[in-house]
Amino acid sequence: MTRGPTVRELTAQALSSVERGYDLLAPKFDHTSFRTPDPVLDAMTEALRPLGPFDAALDVCCGTGAGVGVLRRLAVDRVVGVDFSAGMLARARAAHPGGPRWVRADARALPFAPATFDLAISLGAFGHFLPHERPALFAGIRATLRPGGRFAFPMAAPPRVGSPPYWALWGFDAAMRLRNAVWRPRFVMYYRTFRLPDVRRELAAAGFTVRILPLTALGRRDDGTLRCALLVAEATAVTAAATARAAAPPRRRASGH
């Protein structure tokens, strides 16, 4: 039986670059907590279904293909998964034989013609992008979408300030910043830098209008707030600034799941 990675294997990954780390983790990735849970995939599928039908869809930072599974369940005719990790793409091909097209590329330099897709999704990759990198990422995704196309991804509710999960994420990010200050190559993975107000503003600047769809199937917290929601950004006008960011050379690549 295939098991998850050992502490030694996770340490080797953490001391590698993002790309090399995911190549190392790929064979056991689907047996880790890093993979997007099936209930989230199911809820996302049902939330997107009324917005279709979709002709062509892109999974950005597709990892081992969990998001591609969502797209195939939505009966998308043409499905493309893009990732920079050769190891993760190899696992995706094995898990989803036939149909999807797999492309190895930098998420910030997507190799697709403008207005190719009517849906783009991403799962679990945004922590690999520093805040100043997100505008170019969003502009590039916007450029691949047709007018009215949608870019969707789930967002979990942030932990309450002072709660154990809050301090766990704070500690992880602090440890990662220390690691990157003293070790090269860097491994960029931060949990507390992807904040909804910032993301909404950056998406609007890239030419999207944003709405939030509740994922009620995932339940509520003790205070009644939703545990998770789906952010859906609809492609509107492409601004000059967004076009410039989409054309900017990439600095780093990222993998998702």
From TrEMBL:
GO molecular function per UniProt: methyltransferase activity
GO process terms (BP): methylation
EC numbers for this chain: 2.1.1.-
Gene3D superfamilies reported in the protein's UniProt record: Vaccinia Virus protein VP39 (3.40.50.150)
Presence of the UniProt keyword Flavoprotein in the record: no
Ranges of residues in domain Methyltransferase: 58-149
Primary enzyme class: transferase
Protein name: Class I SAM-dependent methyltransferase
Organism: Streptomyces millisiae
